[in-house]
Amino acid sequence: MAERRTAIATVCLSGTLEDKLAAASSAGFDGVEIFENDLLASRLSPAGIRRHCADLGLSIDLYQPFRDFEAVPPELLRANLRRAERKLDLMAELGTGTILVCSSVSPDAVDDDELAAEHLHALAELAAERGMRIAYEALAWGRFVNTYQRSWRIVRRAAHPALGLCLDSFHILSVGGDPAAIRTIPGEKIFFVQLADAPRLAMDVLQWSRHHRLFPGQGEFDLTAFTGHVLATGYRGPLSLEVFNDVFRQADPRLTAVDAMRSLLALRESLGLAELPEAPALHGHAFAELAAPAGEDVGKVLAGLGFTVAGHHRTKPVQLWAQNGARVLVNKTGERTAIAVDSEDPGRSARRAEAYLAQPLRRGREAVAAPDSTELFFCGGDDWLADFEPAGEAGRTAGITGIDHVALTQPFDQFEEAALFYRSVLGLRLDPVVEFAAPFGLVRSRAAAHQGVRLTLDTALVRRGEWAPAVREPQHIAFATGDAIASAKAMRALGAPLLDIPGNYYDDLEARLDLDPGLLAELRAQSVLYDRDEHGEFLHFYTELAGERVFFEVVQRIGGYRGYGVANAPIRMAAHRDRRLNGR
Amino acid sequence: MAERRTAIATVCLSGTLEDKLAAASSAGFDGVEIFENDLLASRLSPAGIRRHCADLGLSIDLYQPFRDFEAVPPELLRANLRRAERKLDLMAELGTGTILVCSSVSPDAVDDDELAAEHLHALAELAAERGMRIAYEALAWGRFVNTYQRSWRIVRRAAHPALGLCLDSFHILSVGGDPAAIRTIPGEKIFFVQLADAPRLAMDVLQWSRHHRLFPGQGEFDLTAFTGHVLATGYRGPLSLEVFNDVFRQADPRLTAVDAMRSLLALRESLGLAELPEAPALHGHAFAELAAPAGEDVGKVLAGLGFTVAGHHRTKPVQLWAQNGARVLVNKTGERTAIAVDSEDPGRSARRAEAYLAQPLRRGREAVAAPDSTELFFCGGDDWLADFEPAGEAGRTAGITGIDHVALTQPFDQFEEAALFYRSVLGLRLDPVVEFAAPFGLVRSRAAAHQGVRLTLDTALVRRGEWAPAVREPQHIAFATGDAIASAKAMRALGAPLLDIPGNYYDDLEARLDLDPGLLAELRAQSVLYDRDEHGEFLHFYTELAGERVFFEVVQRIGGYRGYGVANAPIRMAAHRDRRLNGR
């Protein structure tokens, strides 16, 4: 963040301390918080860690946590001060000047701010002797001190220059605290700031904190407002990420660290502090590209949907299939999948993506790699058609007008990163995360959309064993039509292998909804699924699988329906399973 | 359950409806509850499902759920009755006589038991016309009706012979309901009973219910008492399992169904209704067998620990290593791992295991397969030594007296099943589940112990990506010693490759605990780890890896310490990682 230092707590990352430090350095962080358990398990001595960090260009901005210190009986205070001295000695070797002290959760602590202030004053004396500082943090589940307003009262009362606050967005926002009063704290008494986002979950706040935190912009907290309050105080320390997350704990730390840095870049942009290229306006999807080694199967299905071959790539075994505004590339090398957006300024789109740490690709056109290696192209109108030798196939059509959305199956480890990536790089708006029970386990899904570009990100939430004959990493493109029933009839006439939907589904629609009997009969006859929300209705149908992984959907949005028919996804999944087991 | 019918809700199992029915039938269930979403997604018509179940020997005992019916305004009641009629028609085709109606969570419902009773009476009339019945269930999160006492008041008030109760143990026990009052309900008014266990979790009860239920005996609810109350009423219907669980939803349904049936067998035994062979007394571990294709490495480490070769298997490439009461088999074919317990009656142990649905193995000795395919042998004293040609190696020793415990890494999908298996087959007592943050992700661990046999079951809670250089499926045996420090010294003298523990760990011990400085210096010098609980102390140390997966631990229990040093496991894991990256 330009003049603002960035840091990351080692607890955010997977691996040994050395794995974590290498990842933080390589993602460009200025400093780290050393989490005590990472140090304890490290074969490097504190002095060795100091040297190693210096070699990596990392400062050590904080040592943490020190727990259950204040407001205890005298003999326990003596033991706690002894314990603290050991840790301050360690910090001297480590070369770090600030230690995080969490408000006590101990049954030995008493509810006495005066005593807490007195004890913290004694601790601050020990720190001051060594030129160090104590950053006192109110845990959301602190036994008595559980708001920053109360930790600030105690710090004021202690009135020691080596004692200040640590503010952690999770502890404040998770319990509905109002961060606005942060502005009343002098910036020089805020010794450290930790940022974490989180989804809103109805669960024990300690478990929520220890397992489900996210990087800023990935959850539902307003980190922009929080950080705005912090910066308004004149706080000059680093903005540091402290995110306890079960998935990040086991994911490649090099990827997590990049995701983390991207979250700080997006936060900075949201605060108006960015020097990033602005997101150009988009004009919908330019094309979607499928990896289809069995290209003939996919071609046959596309032909059945009313597509025709509109061109052949001049240098690669890639066919362009088109129907009005819908363009699909079928790549027979089966090496890659790609999505392409129509950007007002493809060059600026690419520069923005690279500023957001996307890896640029050499593809002749502006393109970068998304977190899951999907290739993301930025096209300007139809300029990209020049790469194709036009084919003069006759213009069949079955009513498809364009690409409605592309469903991107994400690796479990990259789900949160992908949402943040598409939001920040393309400027898409994220819908809330949806989870649903599918035949082979829970699926998590999140839509991202803006200016005619719609993506859905999907991942299997738990899938570990050998079982689960779901379609693995499906490639799924949904086309738009103005009349789903008519399109389905036309496609059947063209020989499209549309997916049969069980009659039980329609019996249930009939029982639940007051649908027009004529419409219901048409839906049933054509195997078209139905959904509605407060804005409108949704009619959609699927093809069978072409090869192992590819299928298509055709959707009709009526009157401003905003969803993606997620409630019907389990029906589709079971039908695909049935076809594979029993069909053909 | 002899004269008691067993059933399972299809929602417990993964797959399509046909996958689920096949699994339930093959595990020996008498009937099923059909979960509506499974039916909607099925290509079989209701009549087809009826025929299919009949072919599989399964009755359809319940159709479920019907939601948000009662205590609503008149026009909504009309719509709900219409909806109910469609479902009752469907049930006629399906050939099932009972439908589950959950207490309403709708914002349209009002708090009026009289009105609820009136509406349920009308619904019961519709059911009675078809010879069917309504089983009304109070959801723990029902808008107004959220206890079985209240649903029972409403059912009494409605006073219709076709209206009765469904009792679900989760909805009653999760919110601390007292099940004893169930005894006041006439058995014939209890139309259906659903059993589910769960771990105690501090979270929203609806999320808890939908994601974390377990089969009886796998969680922390007292299902024995609950079922005892139910049976005391004279209830004659099936005992049915309804378990929503994220892991079971994606696991092989054939294994889950066996696990489910085993839970009902154990429940029956706990109620004193079993005809199962009683668990014979155990006298500790007989041996543990390692799959060690690199047998030489393992042998070298065992020799360093003071073991000697005590025999060679008469027909297989298996070495017997021994030191006092500790016996380890090293199987160079690398095909199997096994554990063996010393049973008072090996034949009865095996019969009991088979009664508990364990697959018998033809191994010359009494043996069965555990859920993860570990082979479980039942030995009678030292009878099994006859399989080995004695070797006359000289009697080294380094103070090991026996096997303290064997750590069994479980497949994620079989973790709960394994705990129930060892508890029911061997009569072990289960400790609570422990979860801890290890360097490469969360680990879940649970100990099972009794009569000198101790097992720990471990699984990586989230581990999905390519990252995570943890030891995969470690084979880990812990030996007992009376003096860990002396054993460590003796083993170092014998050349054992003991795992170095970082100095930072000992600095922290020193800061935290008031340990005797002499002891601390010895621990540090010998790389011995330390733990304590309210009963005593624990000293333990590890070897480096022998090959890719095998390592050993040596433990000293002082004064009744009951744990397994879990707090130190992350230190061990990081050290193993370091040795593999940087060592040798």
TrEMBL record, chains A, B:
Catalytic activity as recorded in UniProt: 3-dehydroshikimate = 3,4-dihydroxybenzoate + H2O
Gene3D superfamilies: 2,3-Dihydroxybiphenyl 1,2-Dioxygenase, domain 1 (3.10.180.10), Divalent-metal-dependent TIM barrel enzymes (3.20.20.150)
Primary enzyme class: lyase
Keywords: Dioxygenase, Lyase, Metal-binding, Oxidoreductase, Pyruvate
Pathway: Aromatic compound metabolism; 3,4-dihydroxybenzoate biosynthesis
Positions of Mg(2+) binding: H405, H476, E553
GO MF: 3-dehydroshikimate dehydratase activity; dioxygenase activity; metal ion binding
EC number: 4.2.1.118
Cofactor(s) the protein needs: a divalent metal cation
One of the GO BP terms on file: 3,4-dihydroxybenzoate biosynthetic process
Residues that bind a divalent metal cation: E137, D168, Q194, E242
Source organism, top-level taxon: Bacteria
UniProt domain VOC: residue ranges: 402-544
Family indicated by similarity: Belongs to the bacterial two-domain DSD family.
Protein function: Catalyzes the conversion of 3-dehydroshikimate to protocatechuate (3,4-dihydroxybenzoate), a common intermediate of quinate and shikimate degradation pathways.
Name the record gives this protein: 3-dehydroshikimate dehydratase
